[in-house]
Amino acid sequence: MKLKSILPLLLSEFIGTALLLSIGLSFVIFDWGKGSVVATYIPLASARRLITGFLFGSTGCLITLSPVGKISGAHINPAMSFAFWLRGKMKTYALIGYITAQMTGAAVGCIPLLLWQEQGSSIQYGITLPGNAGLRSAFIGELITTAALVTVVFVFVGSRRLRNYTPFVMPPLYSFMVWLETAYSGCSTNPARSFGPALVSNYFNDYWIYVAAPLLSAFVITILFRLFRLHKLLHIKAARLSYHNMPTHESIKSGDMMPDNN
Q: Of 95, 99, 215, 253, which is most buried, counting CB atoms within 10 Å of its CB?
């Protein structure tokens, strides 16, 4: 009965995550795949990283502002849902439903990437892999970038003046993070984002990094907010990145963990 009441939210998360991967990773393939026109005209890798990150972040921004984003709050990332749950802003059944919808959406969203054929397969459809610096650097890179994401979201949605601007910070944030960190881990910050291309490529080597590091990072940041009592200063109304004239379901307004007012 509880899951039935949040089916519109779960469908929205499914669609939103599918769109994030199908569109966002198409930009990755277009910019970096074999025979890329972008690589011909912009051979400087650092410049292309800036552009790719901005386009991926812009995809997330537009999804957040879209009707599906307004319904579910546009988490489109299990690590972000986990962080909201830890802040006491999601019911446990909603967290499980959201993560299931996100992972399923990631899988379905990557199916259209097969249309890129050789250009897509040349980079395994935008898969995230540890760089030459090794697993430790990749893990640390995912910890830092996910920490940056969660912190920015907590600061923006926790401020009445800033919360409506939360979606618009994603393009510059991802542009900077992709430019700075991609060489170490691929700058995922999102277990679902890494799951989709790993699935269609049938390559799950080191995928655990892209689950463990983002979730651990979300946990640490949430604990630090409570330890330094930042949760009192930056009070989150609901587990959503979109606050644009849409009613909020009770399952993402309060949760089973300790709420912010404690």
A: 95
- What's the gap between Cα 92 and its chain centre? 19
Cβ pair 184, 138 in contact under 8 A: yes
Identify the CA nearest to 198 among candidates 96, 130, 101.
130
**How many whole angstroms separate alpha carbon 12 and alpha carbon 143?**
27
- Whether 128 and 193 have beta carbons less than 8 Å apart is answered as yes
Distance CA 208, CA 204 (A): 8
State pTM to two decimals: 0.96
8 Å CB contact between 183 and 46: no
The CA-based diameter of the chain, rounded to the nearest angstrom, is 55
9 CB neighbour count, 10 Å cutoff: 23
Neighbours of 245 (CB within 10 A): 7
Q: Record the tokens describing residue 93, joined without a space.
A: 């059944």
DSSP per-residue string spanning 120-181: HHTTGGG-----TT-HHHHHHHHHHHHHHHHHHHHHHHT-TTTGGGGGGGHHHHHHHHHHHH
| pLDDT, tens only, 84-98 | 999 999 999 999 999
For residue 252, the number of C-alpha atoms closer than 13 Å in the C-beta half-sphere is: 34
Which residues make Cβ contacts (< 8 Å) with residue 47, sequence separation at least 6? none
Q: Which single residue is written with the structure tokens 């890494």?
A: 194
| Cβ atoms of residues 147 and 214 within 8 Å | no
Kindly report, residue by residue over 172-193, the tens digit of the pLDDT.
999 999 999 999 999 999 999 9
Task: State the fold for domain 2-241.
Answer: Glycerol uptake facilitator protein (1.20.1080)
